[in-house]
Structures are given as structure tokens and as C-alpha cells.
Amino acid sequence: MTMRLDYLSIFPAYFDVLDISLLGKAAVNGLVEVHAHDLRDWTHDRHRTVDDTPCGGGAGMVMKPDPWGEAFDEIIGTEPDSSVHVIFPSPSGAPFTQSAAQELSSAVRIVFCCGRYEGIDHRVIDYARSMWTVHEVSLGDYVLNGGEVAALAITEAVVRLVPGFMGNPESLAEESFSAGQDGLLEYPLFTRPVSWRGLDVPEVLMSGHHGRIAKWRRDESVRLTCERRPDLTDSDFGVPH
Ligand SMILES: N#Cc1c(-c2ccc3ccn(Cc4ccc(CN5CCOCC5)cc4)c3c2)n[nH]c1N
């Protein structure tokens, strides 16, 4: 099954990068199909205008609904289809999580609507909700200039979970933020040389003793999680708050 990814943006060149590396390989293997669109192609004035002043006043500009509606008609269609997932990155969106990525990895079609300025006229989102499955999501509590970077991050998080994408699916099982690691942060990683600029690989990792190695890794994951992400710890880890 090929996953079709569409990107609507006034900066479609942001998505040229998807031809590189693993994503490029996935496209070649037919796992994903990528289409980037310039929203201005659905404007009709000489200046190819996509924005206007906010109703009710306020700073900045708001993206007009008309180009989005015409782009939707051409790219997605005019019939409702809940199997189409439409993602609006937004500072006021719900936090994007690994479980959301996992859910989206089984989607047949995902359309990313990348806003700019102060955002998109809300009727565009309301219309999309009446037609497709809509996700208003945020990458995190910091302000970006538009939705493109978020769309790229979400794409990578989702596509790497598509069956057949990652060469070694076992590497997905041990990752942080996935059930396999009990939601703890990943332990520190080391490789050769054993000694580097006076810094040595922890002896336990060179011991060949799998039980001790597993304990060290678990202890390190718990230590790191307590230090950096107390919000992820709870009594189940046997770790005091
Ligand atoms: N995903 C994601 C994002 C985004 C994001 C996503 C999409 C768009 C479209 C336009 N912009 C720029 C923009 C910046 C500032 C504001 C006003 N601010 C008022 C006070 O509260 C904060 C927002 C609005 C819009 C976007 C930003 N930012 N951070 C994330 N994690």
C-alpha cells in the first residue's frame, strides 16, 4: 500500500528535501508518494494574494480561505472521505506525540496544510473537519514562522513507522517514547574506540554480561528520565518522584 503525502504551502520548495535519504528511498520503493503544491496556484489576482487583515483587528495577516478551498477541491476532491487525514500544524494545536505518529503510519493519505502569517482563516479548518479527518497539532511550546518545519518533522516521525520503511524494524522497538522502552528516555550509546580522548566506554558494556548490561541500561534510562523528564516518571517505574 502506498501512502500519498500532499503538502500545501506558499513555500513548496521546503519539501524538496523529502527526495533525500530514507524518504527518497521510500518514494523510490513506492512506499510513499510525495506531492508539494504552491497555494498561490489557486489565486487569481495579479499579486497572487493569499492573505488579508484580521476581522476584528489585531496584528499581522490571516490566510484567506478561498485559495485553500480551491486547492482542496483539486487536490483532495469535493466528496467527504474520512480516510483522508488533513494535518494543520498550529501553535494552538494538540501536542504531536509518538502515538499520533503510530496511528498516522497506517493512513493511506495525509494532506499537510502549512500556514504562514498569523495563521489560516478558521473556516478552512471547519470545512476540512466536515469533509476529512482533521488533526490540529503543535510540535512544542515554541513559536515557528509557519507550518512547513512541523510538517517535515511529522512526516519523518510517521513515515519511519510505515511497515517496510526501516531496514531494521527491531530498532523501532527499543526507542524512547515507544511502549517497548516503558516510555523512559533512551540510555546513553557508545561504540568503538573503547578509549577516546581520555574518555572510556563504561566497562559493563564491554563485559559481555548481558544481565548486567541490561540492568545498567535500565538504570541509566531511569536516571535520565528522572533528571530530564520528571513528567514521564510515575510510581510504575519504582522511582520516587
Ligand atoms: N506546529 C507548530 C508550531 C508553530 C506554527 C505552526 C503553524 C503556523 C502558521 C503560522 N505560524 C506562525 C505564527 C507565529 C505566531 C503566532 C501567534 N502566537 C500568538 C501567541 O501564541 C503563540 C502563537 C501565530 C502564527 C505558525 C506557527 N509554531 N510553533 C509550533 N510548535
TrEMBL record:
InterPro entries: Alpha/beta_knot_MTases, tRNA_m1G_MeTrfase_C_sf, tRNA_m1G_MeTrfase_TrmD, tRNA_m1G_MTases_N, tRNA_MeTrfase_TRMD/TRM10. Its main location: cytoplasm. This is tRNA (guanine-N(1)-)-methyltransferase. Keywords: Cytoplasm, Methyltransferase, S-adenosyl-L-methionine, Transferase, tRNA processing. Its EC number is 2.1.1.228. It is an enzyme of class 2 (transferase). The lineage of its organism: Bacteria, Bacillati, Actinomycetota, Actinomycetes, Propionibacteriales. Pfam families: tRNA_m1G_MT. HAMAP family: TrmD. It comes from Cutibacterium acnes subsp. acnes. It is found in: Cytoplasm. Coiled coil: none annotated. PANTHER family: TRNA (GUANINE-N(1)-)-METHYLTRANSFERASE. S-adenosyl-L-methionine binds at G115, L139, G140, D141, Y142, V143, L144. Belongs to the RNA methyltransferase TrmD family. Specifically methylates guanosine-37 in various tRNAs. Homodimer. Residues 3-233 form the tRNA methyltransferase TRMD/TRM10-type domain. It catalyses: guanosine(37) in tRNA + S-adenosyl-L-methionine = N(1)-methylguanosine(37) in tRNA + S-adenosyl-L-homocysteine + H(+).
